[in-house]
Structures
1.
Amino acid sequence: QVNSKQGGSPCEEKQVVLLSPLGRIEISGCEKGVHEIKLPKTSLLPRGAEPSVACEVCEGAEEMLEPLQQCTAWLRAYFCEPASTGTLPLPAFHHPLLQRDSFTRQVLWTLLNDVKFGEAVSYKQLADLAGNSRAARAVGGAMRSNPLPIIIPCHRVIRSSGDSGNYGGGQLMKEWLLCHEKLQKEKLAR
């Protein structure tokens, strides 16, 4: 249960499970917005990063709230038709971390708005973009607390050395996501 920003009554959360190329992605939210996206803990990922047609809601479709519908539509597009994500509306977000004013929120919004599909940014570059060039470590903390991975693309944040760095879904998943985006961006450029 998540309390609303004003400390009001707890949200009535619903959950939906999306079967994706990465495995089962659990999405929770209320009528005000998406609360959290939980990536599967997996060590087996599909070979290559081609778009997949296998991306369907497998649980919770009966009474899906609008933010969850928008979230699953966006994620399905991300995996199956990546070029169309730019034309889809982002779902509303309703996680407490994204409600209150903080450097973490600033970093996550900056990442969402400024680092586009198929791009990567270092922790230091993202700290600069978010307005505090000396906060690369704090950017790492913000990435660890990101409640909406993939939509808020923390997988696009890499080390200055070019190494992919850590990721909540594991390093293999991060590398798969980066490869997926790179391949799709190259296809669009042709």
2.
Amino acid sequence: MGLTVNTIKTEVVCQWSANIPSTPPTFTAAGEQLSVVPSFRYLGSILSEDNTIDNEVQNRIKQASAVFGRLRRRVFQNKNLHLRTKVCVYQAICITTLLYSCEAWVTYSRHIRALEQFHIRCLQRILGITWRDRVPHSEVLSKTNCRSIEATITQHQLRWLGHVVRMPSNRLPRRVLYGQLHHGRRSAGGQKKRYKDQLKTALKK
């Protein structure tokens, strides 16, 4: 028994280290040309050709917003439920959806800002307050006993880092984490943040 590739459903994403060329390369399988797309979904995450998580973050916010909306009347606006119960449901379902696969994210300030805005907005709705009440974000987090999104992502990444470090040296995740490129060099000018840079920042914090 062999693997048969469905060329109609198979798509290719080329991730470039520098500028994206105007004419994408061509790939063929079984004599048929495969579609080259700017992004596609793989294992629940969106992979983009520009090596950023911009589309992934927007997709995570969209998915978490849909989950919050489905539970809004039955749970978050239910006066018969205790605030602690509402927050537990929010963290177990909405936050889990929002930060799916965040262990592998390389975040910039724009990503954290968008995620924090969604997080605070949801907590404000759970508490029944609006921006007119002028309640600081720190007080919103304190009343709900929640961490900020930045702190939560850092915690998840450090937990994953510890898991990888404790792996045997022959395991692929550990080899990739400690691996170095033998050829090539980074281009001049401003550099994109690497995953190792993200982990170093988390460890310093």
3.
Amino acid sequence: LCLAVPPQIVNISSDITVNEGSSVTLMCLAFGRPEPTVTWRHLSGKGQTFVSEDEYLEITGITREQSGEYECSAVNDVAVPDVRKVKVTVNYPPYISNAKNTGASVGQKGILQCEASAVPVAEFQWFKEDTRLANGLEGVRIESKGRLSTLTFFNVSEKDYGNYTCVATNKLGNTNASIILYG
């Protein structure tokens, strides 16, 4: 007498956060009779691809594109598969994806924008030459939300023209971009 036992995942890795470039091993142990087949797949936006036909999924030198949810399924044709998920967060240093020079006439409003991708989210600072700009000083406003930071001049004057630096920082590093406000 051979008893059929539905597949059951008995142990699976917890959600993890790692730095880009690290190696990661995800584990998914399953029980059942007959012995279930265990597969891993990455639930990415680019279609769902099988990653591993095994209880262990090894990722060496993980990249930011490999972050997201990983799904383990245990299948043995006795009953519906047992499916569990693990979330992998990949930290990476900031990179500035958008910083354009901007023109504004004297007396008009001028807006400089700096966009940076980073995990954890970047903190922004603005400088003119070597001077750090502070919110509310000399008619400027700095607003940072998520990936975007804006430096707004409410009433552009000649002395506002010139080169500004946007610095994006998180615990993994920093990067900067030069942006010119011109007349």
4.
Amino acid sequence: MCHVIVTCRSMLWTLLSIVVAFAELIAFMSADWLVGKAKPSSSEDVDNRTGGSQEPYHPTLGIYGRCTRISHMQFSRRDTLCGPYAENFNEIASGFWQATAIFLALGIMILCTMAFVSVFTMCVQSIMKKSIFNVCGLLQGIAGLFLILGLILYPAGWGCQKAISYCGPYASAYKLGDCSLGWAFYTAIGGTVLTFICAVFSAQAEIATSSDKVQEEIEEGKNLICLL
């Protein structure tokens, strides 16, 4: 018989697992890993409504994508265009970034799978006498290690030609040059920290769902058990 068990700690772990997976996925897909040096407005960058020059813009560069400003001949208007600069894996600007993409993709795949599984832990808490919480926590820890490897390798690729074109000639491995770090990089770091918190908190979720109070509710014949 399936017993739906919802506790404060297990629900918090489930929600955190989902948030972490989405945060890492969004960061990976974003082009805002590096913010390039400001491009000054040219004589063509004129706001037709005010007659003044537009503010300088900052192109951004991700692991496989980029955002830059493109010109429109009509009205001398410029729009920001974002999209992948690499049509396939081999065209990613640096070998270090290719390794970063692999490790981050592996970590995110595990996290997304664990986020999906965590939803069903309300109904199924163990498989083959193994706690799903503990298994998920272990896999989340492994995912966190993959994410750390990816984030360590990423700055080693700052010396590639693509990064230099955005960050200036002084950019090199682990040196930003004229660039700054974008929100996606910080989001990936924050998500990695939360991944390990999830891994540790999974043990608390397991304790909460197997407590004596839960067992008493099961013995009383209840199928839906909600505990704070």
